[in-house]
Design brief:
Oligomer: heterodimer
Shape of chain A: elongated
Distance between the termini of chain B: 55 Å
Distance between the termini of chain A: 48 Å
Number of domains of chain B: 2
Number of helices of chain A: 9
CATH topology of the largest domain in chain B: Rossmann fold
CATH class of the largest domain in chain B: Alpha Beta
Radius of gyration of chain A: 21 Å
Order of helices and strands of chain B: EEEHEHEHEHEEEEHEHHEEH
Number of domains of chain A: 2
Largest interface: A-B, 95 and 82 residues
Helix content of chain A: 25-40%
CATH class of the largest domain in chain A: Alpha Beta
Number of strands of chain B: 13
Order of helices and strands of chain A: EEEHEHEHEHEEEEEEEEHEHEHEHEH
Strand order of the largest sheet of chain A: 7-11-6-1-4-5-12
Strand content of chain A: 25-35%
């Protein structure tokens, strides 16, 4: 039976959203391929079996549950062995993995192990003559490439926040398979994990991002961006200029040498729009630019532009957003 | 300790790109080539480890003649020697082929540590570190923001979505550098002069023991295009109160993102 295999990532007993995006996309592709193509998922961890139902609700026909105490924490070698073994057994036509920190670490190791071609950071997949074709940004979005595979499985990592979730159908029938694997010794492993400040929205997965740049004039004013983000339930980003100047930590950086984001709404405050920055956010669905300079390059990629003083506009926007969002709840 | 650093030469991140005439790649003319920024961090980390513990830093890169400039750059920063993998067979490789080529050159060196950038800026694949580790049968830790070496073990800090992980790995291992690991040094004039005398060994596929089938691409780019142009920006005019009110109205009623 032809199949598409997806990798399900979870943390603290919950499936992470990119895992559901990946299974939703696999379902769409399987239905287009026809020939009763099945969607299979691999779920690795300890005590993870209850998560299978959620994968099924988003499109999985069969969930391979690989449950072992030794697999409770993610470790590249052990997990790669499990996924590679499943690929050898099931011979899927395609393998889809989220382009998350974990997926970026895991997918290349699996691809090398099974000798498959891997296409990273895919933003669109289409079926052409029964095979997949991928579209992906390259040079940080300055170009887009159409990529094909030579042979199978066709492995891809999918950019988070791009592929829509299939509506959950709790009544979908599915099958759970318990797979036995040998867990060999792990040479590299996680010894501790620390959550970064609670309540913060993860930049690469946020639906709304508010970013600040040099127009804020100094680190003491960065709170204006953080307050607007808090009012909108958004993640906070920054330009390379302010990260390099030491105003905020590097993990806030959006751009070619930082994070790539594609939220529904991106608000750039006091960011001029260096090509480096545009590369990391131009795939956002709606872009709002606020800048005092009407000629700033950021307005070339923005959908909506406000020319003005960010020290005046940001606090007003924060207050107005609080009032209007509260009024709508 | 013996440290190998994999180096990729990439277009300057500020470069404006044009397409090649075949429509499957970027036009290489007029591009200013640089060492991939993450690879510079890998070189810097190797040099810091060498300064602390002694040892030898070897750079390895795959590509045509222009790659020599990237290797010279790393040598000027302070690396000791370099291997330049150069062969017509290495043209048009995908990440898998590059990983095989690098592995073939690295294996005989028997390094204690292999450092790479977490991704090659440009192709943005993030594939070579993991593939290289698998081919060499070594453990890997990717996207490191802190590396500490003690005896034959490395403790590595790695950032994931909303959390920070501490990994331990036996050595040798492949570790990839993420922004935050360090601030790469600039080559000094003395370093640049010294680099001219440092050895760059050119190695072809046969010498590396590579065959065409090891390198055969499993993915291929069939078309490349420039991004679609966005519709023209709509400027929201008026005093700040009017601008803010109108923006929220548009985002809610028209764009439907709030």
């Amino acid at each position: 039976m032809p199949s598409i295999l997806t990798y399900a990532e979870h943390r603290d007993g919950t499936l992470r959203r990119p895992s559901l995006e990946v299974v939703s996309e696999a379902r769409r592709l399987a239905d287009q391929m026809g020939g009763d193509t099945k969607v299979e998922c691999v779920l690795i961890g300890s005590g993870v079996a209850p998560l299978a139902a959620t994968l099924a609700a988003h499109g999985a026909d069969r969930v391979h549950v690989v449950d072992a105490k030794e697999l409770a924490a993610y470790a590249t070698e052990g997990y790669a062995r499990v996924v590679a073994q499943l690929i050898s057994n099931e011979k899927p036509k395609a393998v889809l993995i989220p382009y998350s920190a974990m997926g970026k670490d895991l997918a290349p190791r699996v691809a090398a192990r099974v000798g498959a071609g891997l296409v990273s950071d895919v933003v669109k997949l289409t079926v052409k003559d029964g095979k997949l074709q991928a579209r992906r940004p390259m040079y940080a979005g300055k170009t887009f490439a159409t990529v094909e595979w030579v042979g199978e499985p066709q492995m891809a990592t999918l950019r988070p926040n791009v592929f829509p979730l299939a509506p959950a159908d709790a009544a979908r029938k599915f099958e759970t398979v318990t797979a036995d694997v040998e867990v060999a010794n792990q040479r590299a492993k996680v010894v501790s994990m620390q959550a970064t400040a609670a309540g913060k929205v993860e930049l690469t997965e946020a639906q709304i991002v508010v970013s600040g740049g040099r127009g804020l004039k100094g680190p003491e004013n960065f709170h204006l961006v953080e307050e607007l983000a808090a009012a909108l339930g958004a993640a906070v980003g920054a330009s390379r200029a302010v990260v390099d100047a030491g105003w905020v930590d590097h993990h806030y950086q959006v751009g070619q040498t930082g994070k790539t984001v594609s939220p529904s709404l991106y608000i750039a405050a006091g960011i001029s729009g260096a090509i480096q920055h545009l590369a990391g956010m131009s795939s956002s669905k709606v872009i709002v630019a606020i800048n005092k300079d009407a000629d700033a390059p950021i307005f070339k990629v923005a959908n909506y532009g406000l020319v003005g003083d960010i020290f005046e506009i940001l606090p007003k926007l924060t207050e107005a957003a609080k009032t209007s969002l509260a009024g709508r709840k | 300790m013996k440290i190998v650093v994999c180096v990729k030469q990439v277009p300057d991140t500020e470069a404006r790109l044009k397409l090649a005439s075949d429509g499957k790649a970027i036009a290489e003319a007029d591009i200013n080539w640089i060492v991939s920024p993450y690879d510079e961090m890998a070189i810097e980390e190797a040099l810091k480890l060498k300064e602390a513990k002694g040892g030898d830093v070897v750079l390895v890169s795959v590509g045509g003649d222009r790659v020599q400039a990237a290797l010279r750059n790393g040598l000027a920063m302070g690396a000791d020697s370099a291997i330049h993998l150069k062969d017509p067979l290495f043209e048009g490789l995908d990440s898998r082929g590059i990983a095989w080529a690098l592995a073939a050159a690295i294996k005989p060196l028997g390094p204690d540590l292999i450092l790479t950038g977490q991704t090659g800026v440009g192709t943005d694949d993030s594939q070579v570190p993991g593939m290289l580790a698998e081919i060499l049968d070594l453990p890997q830790v990717t996207m490191a923001v802190k590396i500490e070496i003690t005896d034959s073990k490395a403790t590595v800090k790695r950032e994931v979505e909303g959390a920070s992980e501490t990994w331990e790995t036996t050595l040798p291992a492949v570790i990839s550098a993420q922004k935050g690991l360090n601030e790469p040094r600039y080559a000094s004039l003395k370093g640049i002069m010294a680099a001219k005398k440092k050895p760059i060994q050119t190695m072809d596929a046969a010498t590396a023991g590579l065959k065409a089938e090891d390198l055969a691409p499993k993915t291929r780019i069939v078309a490349m295009e420039l991004p679609p142009t966005r519709s023209t920006v709509k400027m929201i005019e008026g005093d700040p109160d009017t601008q803010v009110k109108e923006l929220l109205r548009i985002l809610h009623d028209e764009a439907k993102v709030l």
